[in-house]
Amino acid sequence: MRHWIEASVLAAVAATCLVSAAWAGPVEDLVSGARTECRDCDLTGANFKKADLSGVDLSGAILTDATFHRANLRGAILDGVIAIGTNFNLTDLTQAQLVDGDFTRSMFYGAQMSGANLSGSNLTEARMQTARLTSAKLPGAVLDRALLRDSVANNADFSNASLQGTNLNGASLGRSVFDGATISYAGFVQAEASSASFIGATISLTDFYGANLRRAKVTGATLTGNRFTTAATREVDFDQATMSGNFMADGRLQN
Question: What is the pLDDT of residues 95-109, one digit of tens each?
Fold first, then answer.
């Protein structure tokens, strides 16, 4: 009898373990690698700190207030996610897809985002200081009041983006494209933006003090009330732009 009872107890424990494994939550499954996709999942407040989620598909997921601090999201798919106030600090998002996502007030401090695709995404008030965005794609993105101070975004595509109140002071923006962008009350103080392209952009009340703008292209741009004092503007043909009320590199106020 005793042996039968013990066998029954062991069987019950085994069954419980199997049920628990079968019903493990999506967070645990993603962290363990048991699953590599969780489309449209509600992962609000989930903790993925230092998790290896490379290549995972989280399209359409709700990631609000979740943390991916120091996580590996290389090549991950986060298209259409809602990630408000989400922590991506020091996360590896190299070549990740983040198209049309809502990243309002999210944190990307020191994140590795080279080659990431953020086309059409909402990055309003995102904190991205010192993030690496080399060759990142951000056409049509909203970066209003975002903080990209000291970020590295050489060869990045900001075409047709909205940069109102955006802080790019000290950023590396060589050969980056801002064609058709709307830029106002933004900061490019001491930014390295040589050979950057602002073709057809609308730029107003923006501070380029001490910035390196050598060989920048401004054809068809509208430049109003900006400060270029002490900026390096050699080979910038301002005659190709519509200009009014700007402080030029020599400190002269344009008529």
Answer: 999 999 999 999 999
Pair 136, 155: CB distance under 8 Å: no
pTM of the model: 0.90
- Distance, in Å, from the CA atom of 244 to the CA atom of 202, rounded to the nearest integer, reads 12
The domain limits of the chain are 1-35
The DSSP secondary structure of 124-158, one letter per residue, reads TT-B-TT-B-TT-B-TT-B-TT-B-TT-B-TT-B-
Query: What residues contact residue 28 under an 8 Å CB cut-off, 6+ apart?
Result: 34
Q: What is the pLDDT of residues 205-214, one digit of tens each?
A: 999 999 999 9
Task: Give CA torsion, residues 16, 18, 24, 29, to 10 deg.
Answer: 150
Cα gap 97→198, rounded to integer Å: 25
Distances (CA, A) of 11 to 15, 19, 24, 95, 171: 6, 12, 20, 47, 62
For 11, half-sphere exposure in the C-beta direction (CA atoms, 13 angstrom radius) is 6
Task: Give the DSSP H/E element, type plus range, for residue 204.
Answer: strand 202-204
